[in-house]
Amino acid sequence: MTTTSTLTHFDGQGQAHMVDVAAKPDTRRTAVAQGRIVMNAATLAIILEGTAKKGDVLGIARIAGIMAAKKTSELIPLCHPLALTHVAIEFTSDAPSASIRCLATVETVGPTGVEMEALTSVQVALLTIYDMCKAVDRAMVITDVKLLEKHGGKSGSFVAAG
């Protein structure tokens, strides 16, 4: 695991603060995150067949993920509010593992990155799937949430190994 030498959300006295990004140039920023929700095979079938009692599970989860990206600064205390230029949520089902993978891509042009927005988007989209299907499967597990890549800004690009 790679870490940086300093934690930017603490000042010289160790107090939490919002990082000052005023002097940073606006650049195109992109982040991609993923996660999975594992469930019973019957639950996956209900989702894919579109027979869930609460409606279109993946359609609603997609909207929830987009909304979450837009609200990230209201949920994570030291995140900057950002004008997002693009949010895309993709779902891929895998029958052998009875799971659904969520991939979120978030973009902006600004002085700070969108990693937290992408990660928040994935989590809320997967939580929405859980919420809509919990009546038939309370044993679902959200797993493997991680940042896959980020581009832009002073630190350049990051691409997760594997």
Report on this structure.
With 162 residues, this protein is of the alpha+beta class. 29% of the residues lie in helices and 30% in strands. The protein has a five-stranded antiparallel beta sheet with strand order 2-3-1-4-5. The chain is elongated, with a radius of gyration of 17 Å.
Beta content comes to 25-35%
Helices and strands, in order, run as EHHEEHEE
For the termini, the CA-CA separation is: 13 Å
Q: What overall form do the CA principal axes indicate? A: elongated
Mean pLDDT reading: 92
Total strand count, please?
5
Largest sheet: 5 strands, antiparallel
Which blocks of ≥5 consecutive residues have pLDDT under 50? none
Strand order of the largest sheet: 2-3-1-4-5
Helical residues, percent: 25-40%
Provide the gyration radius in Å.
17 Å
Class based on secondary structure composition and strand pairing: alpha+beta
In short:
The chain is α+β, with helices and mostly antiparallel strands.
Supply the key terms.
162 residues, alpha+beta, 3 helices, 5-stranded antiparallel sheet
Write the layout of secondary structure elements.
Layout lengths: L26 E12 L2 H9 L7 H19 L8 E11 L4 E12 L4 H19 L7 E11 L6 E2 L3
Antiparallel strand pairs: 1-3, 1-4, 2-3, 4-5
